[in-house]
Each structure stands twice: as structure tokens, then as C-alpha cells.
Amino acid sequence: SMSEPSSPDDFVRLALYRSPELERSYQQWVAMSQRVPQAGALPDPRLNVGFFANEVETRVGAQQARIGISQQLPWSGKLRASEVAAAAEARAAWVRYTAIERSITRRVVTALYAIHELDATIDITRESLELLSSFEDSVRSRFRVGGGSQSDLVRTQVELGMLDDRLVSLRS
Which pLDDT belongs to residue 168? Predict the structure, then answer.
């Protein structure tokens, strides 16, 4: 079992680890690879886990690690026709597996960015609510001593109510 995820890489690893779709495509690739006759069998896959000393900035944000499985595929000339067909199927299964892996990674990173943006919006809305609340206090005080208009007070209270609703909605 994996510990609680704390970094984007942890969330991606967890999603890959728990994906039935990825597991199914991996098993299909393994099954296809085993159909290549032993004489022309594909070499064993190698798991590569690389950690970058410094974060590498990519199109989807900073990356601290990369996980991949590499599979050497023999040249067609070394295999008989049935082996060529089996190797092509195994190659296609591998391409499907990596496409699913990339898709899951992209979905997790997109969701993390959306959550980050939502957190920032919640913070800004909460700060605005606090500012408007203190402004409402001063408008109410002025109104009490005859220095402010009732319409200013009502407008401020309506705005406060709207901001409060927005904060509740964002949090939910």
C-alpha cells in the first residue's frame, strides 16, 4: 500500500497504481508479448525510475521524477512471419498501455491544477469577505450617527451576502 500522497508525483503514481484500465492494458501487453514464440521472444521489459536532481519544467509543470517501462522490440528481419505478427500485436498493446498511462497522468495533473486554482480563489474570496465585513461595520456605524445612507448599507449587505454564498459554493 502507498502512504498518503503529498506531491503531484505521488498523486500520479497512486492513480497509475490504482487504475484498473492501466492494469488491464498491462496484462494484455504481457499476454501479447508471451505469444511471440520463444525463439524470437521479446527481451524482458525494464522498469526505469528516474529522479531529477532539480525539478524539470515541462508543459504540464515541474517534474521531479519519471517512471517508465522500456521494451526492446526486435527488427522484423530476425523473426518468422508468425513472430512478426505476434511482435506487432505486442507492440500495439504496448503503445495502448503507454497512451493510457499518459492520459491518466494528464488527467491527474489537470485536476491538481484545478484544485490549486480553486484554493487560491477561496483564499481571495475569504479575504474580500473579511474586508467587506469591516467596511460594512464602518458604514453601519456612520449610518447610526446619521452620516451614511441606508442604500449604502443595504448595498454593502447584499454584496456581503453574495460573497458569502460564493464562498460556501466554492468550498463545497
Answer: 95
Strand partners, 82: none
Kindly list the distances between the CA atom of residue 112 and the CA atoms of 68, 94, 103, in Å, as whole numbers in the listed order. Answer: 21, 27, 14
Please classify residue 60 by burial: count the beta carbons closer than 10 Å to its beta carbon, then call 0-12 exposed, 13-18 middle and 19+ buried: middle
104 touches 15 (CB < 8 A): yes
Say which residues have a Cβ less than 8 Å from residue 92's Cβ, sequence separation at least 6. 32
Find, among 30, 26, 29, 6, the residue nearest to 17 by Cα.
26
Q: What Cα–Cα distance (Å) separates residue 125 from each residue in 100, 106, 138, 158, 170?
A: 37, 29, 20, 15, 9
Is 78 buried (19+), middle (13-18) or exposed (0-12) by CB count in 10 A? exposed
**Strand, coil or helix: what is 137?**
helix
Q: What is the pLDDT of residue 144?
A: 85
Low-confidence ranges of the chain (pLDDT < 70): 1-2, 37-79
Give the rounded distance of the alpha carbon of 111 from its chain centre.
5
